[in-house]
Amino acid sequence: MGKERKVRAYTNIALIKYWGKKDETLFLPMNSSLSLTLDSFYTETAVRFDGSLERDEFWLNDVQQEEKAVQKISRVLDLFRETAGITEPAYVTSTNFVPTAAGLASSASGLAALAGAANLASGLHLDKRTLSTYARRGSGSATRSIYGGFVEWQMGTNNDDSYAVKIDDADWDIGMVTVIVNSKEKAVSSRAGMKNTVLTSPFYPSWLESTAKDLTEIKSAIREQDFQKLGEITESNGMKMHATVLGATPPFSYWEPDSIVAMHMVRELRQQGIPCYFTMDAGPNVKVLCRLSDSQKIQSYLTTYFSPEKVIISGPGKDIEDITNEGVYHD
C-alpha cells in the first residue's frame, strides 16, 4: 500500500475562452486561452495506490461514484501509472468546494487536484509544466488550475507542447465576484456544447480568428496593469463565445433569465463609476471581473436582487498545494 497524498487545486475562470478541441483524445484545444485562478473555489483530492483493491475506487463529496465517473479519473491515473510503472489500483477521495458541473469550473480544480495528488502518490514529482499536460488529459481547463493568478494555456501542436504557463500573480487589486444563478448540473455539457459548436456554427471560424487577437491584447493589458482594457477584452471575448453557440445547429444557450439580470446590473455599476466587467462560461452563472477593493460594493449592489449566499467574492488563487505537507507543493 502506497502513501496517501492530498492536494488542493483552485478553480479558474477563463477570460479568453477555450471553446473547442482539435484532438478529442489528447484534449488539444482549437485556440490558446487565458484565465484567472480564484481563491474561493477549490477541490481537495487524495490519492493512494493500493494493491488490496480490485479496481480504482472514487469517492466524491463522501459519495461513492458510479463506473462512468470512475472511468474518467482512471484515464488520468493510468497516465501516472504508465510513467511510474505502477500496476496497483487507486483509492481516490475528493471534496469539491465548488458546485459540480454548474459552470463554475469544478472539473478544472477537480482534475488538477487529481493530477497533483497522483503525481505525488506515484513518486513521479513531475514539474508543474509537465504536470499541466497530464491534467489536460482529464479536463482541458484543468491545465490552467495548476497555477495561480493569470494563466495562459498555450494550445501547442502535440501532447508535450500544449501546457499552461503563469503570466502574472494578479496581485494588483484584482478580484472577481461570482453570481450563482443556478448551481444545478447544466443541461448541455461543455464537451457536447463545444463539439456541436465547432461542427455546425458558421460564427466559429471568425471567433477563433478574433480570439487570437484578444489573447495578444489581454496579455498586453496585464503587462501594463491596464484594468479597463483587461475588462473590456474579457467581456467582449465571453460574449463572442456565447454568440457561437447561438449559431450552432441546433442552437442552444447556457443563459437563464437571471443571467441577463446580472449582466444588466454590471452595466449599471459601470454607469455609476465602478469599473467591472462580466464573463460567463458554459453555464448560467455570471462572473464579474473587478478591483478587489470594489468587490464588497459590487456584492452589496448585486444582493439587492440576488440572495447574499449566491454572490461570492474571490481574490486570486494560488498554485496547487500539497496539503499533506503543510501547504508546500514540491515539484
**Proportion in helices:** 25-40%
Counted by DSSP, the helix tally is 8
| Shape designation | globular
CATH structural fold name of the largest domain: Ribosomal Protein S5, domain 2
CATH level 1 name of the largest domain: Alpha Beta
Separation of termini?
Answer: 23 Å
How much strand content do the residues show? 15-25%
Number of strands: 14
Largest sheet: 8 strands, mixed
Q: Can you tell me the residue ranges where pLDDT is under 50 for at least 5 consecutive residues?
A: none
Question: How large is the radius of gyration?
Answer: 19 Å
Structural class computed from helices and strand pairing:
alpha+beta
Query: In the residues, how many domains can be counted?
Result: 2
The SSE string, one letter per element, is EEEEEEHEHHEEEHHHHEEHEE
Give the overall average pLDDT. Answer: 94
CATH architecture of the largest domain: 2-Layer Sandwich
